[in-house]
Amino acid sequence: MEYYALQVKTGxxxxxxxxxxxxxxxxxxxxxxxxxxxxxxRGGKVQQELAPIFPGYIFLETGTNxxxxxxxxxRKTDGFFRFLKSNxxxxxxxxxxxxxxxxxxxxxxxxxxxxxxxxxxxRIIVQEGPLKGLEGNIIKVDKRKGRAKIRLDLDNxxxxxxxxxxxxxxxxx
Length: 173
Prior knowledge:
This protein is an alpha+beta fold.
């Protein structure tokens, strides 16, 4: 599979996907908008909200190289800004960018809470979930809120996001 990154209007990612599917139902591709579920406390009540992992980006999954007709169909859909690297130099994701995107794709379109525990030195140990494999990218842990701030980069542009976790008791190995 080949994966491409499209930059679209931030906040309109789902609208772009729906619009593209309506205009081009015959297209043999999958468009992924990666999100994470976070517990948000408002007015003393905790609610689960969805937030994008990569705001303003949609990932195109196709079995072949990007065909000219598909390229133009994607570009002409309202809300489209550009392909990564650029519209003149469209390349499939590779290397670190591909690893990060496929890491989140294996947890589905919505990343749920990771299951973690803390060892004797108060270090976070991830048992399962989207944080698994990203332990080296964790820059801050907020135990009270149940969130870990991680640093990622896409197309050599670093950014930070919060991912939710829940405590579990350490399994006896």
